[in-house]
Amino acid sequence: MKLKSTKDAASSGIKALVYGLSGIGKTALAATTGDLPSTIIASAENGLLSLRKFDIDAVQIDTIDDLYGLWDWLTTDPAGMAKKWLIVDSISEVAEVILSSQKKVMVNGKLVDPRQAYGAMQDQMIALIRAFRDLPLNVVMIAKCEKAQDENGRMLNYPSTPGNKLGQQLPYLFDEVWAMRVQKDAHGIDHRVIQTQPCFNWTAKDRSGSLDDLEAPNLADILAKIQNTTQPNETEV
Fold it and tell me: What are the boundaries of each domain within the chain?
C-alpha cells in the first residue's frame, strides 16, 4: 500500500473546469499561466485568434486519435512531460468530435442508434477527462455555457456539452469549477471575473478553500493562492 499526505493534494496541480458565454475570454486564460513555454493548448475550436500576440504551443484536435496522441506525448515524450499547464479548449467541442465519430459506427451493416452514440460518447468523454485530469500538471478544461429555466422559472447557467447527462456530471469530475463572467464595479465599469462559489443562477465550487468568491482571470495568481505561494502578476489579456 502506497500512502500519501493530504498536504500534497495541490502538488499535482490544479484541476479546473471553466465555463462561460461565447466571447467572454475563456481561451485568453491560457496567456495568464505565468509560464508560457511550459503551456500547451489542445484546441478543438480553431479559436486561437485571441492569443495571436503570444507564443504558446498548441495542438489541433480534429479526431479522437488526436486526443490519444496528445495523451501519449504528454506521458512518454520528454518534451511533453516537461509541460506544466494543459488548457483544453473546449471539452464541449471535444465531445462533439467524439459524438460525430460514434454516429458513424456501423453495427450489422447499419449506423448505430443515436441513443447508443450519445451513451458511448458520454462514457468515452468521462474516461478521457479523467485521464487528462489526472496528469501531473495543471489542467484547465474550458466548456461552453448553456442557459435553461428550472421548474421555478430561474434562468440557470451551467457547463454545456452534447447530451444532458454528460453536462450534469462535469462539475463532479473537477475540484475547481469556475464561471467566467462580466461584473460591474462600483463605477459601473465592466470587468471579467472568475466566480468560484455558487450563487442563485451560476454553478461553481472551490474545494481548495483558498479563493475569493470572485477572482481576477489570472491562472498564475489563482495557482499561487491555492498552493499558498507568491508569484509575479501576469498581464491580463
Answer: 15-226
* Alpha helices in 77-160, H assignment, sequence order: 78-81, 91-103, 114-133
What does the alpha-carbon distance between residue 134 and residue 153 come to, in Å, rounded to a whole number? 37
pLDDT of residue 231: 47
Does residue 132 have a pLDDT over 90?
Answer: yes
- Is the pTM of the predicted complex or chain greater than 0.90? no
* Dihedral sign of CA atoms 157, 163, 164, 170 in order: negative
Tell which CATH classification among 1.10.3470, 3.40.50, 3.90.1480, 3.80.10 matches the domain 15-226.
3.40.50
DSSP state of 226: H
Question: Residue 86 has which C-alpha cell?
Answer: 494543459
Mean pLDDT of all residues in 80-97: 93
- Cα separation, 53 vs 99, in Å, equals 33
Which of the two residues, 193 and 108, has the higher pLDDT score? Answer: 193
Cα–Cα distance measured from residue 195 to residue 186, given in angstroms and rounded to the nearest whole number: 17
Which tens digit of pLDDT belongs to each residue from 170-215?
A: 999 999 999 999 988 888 899 999 999 998 889 999 999 999 999 9
Question: CA 29 to CA 48: how far, in whole Å?
Answer: 11
Dmax over Cα atoms in the chain, in whole Å?
65
DSSP letter, residue 36: G
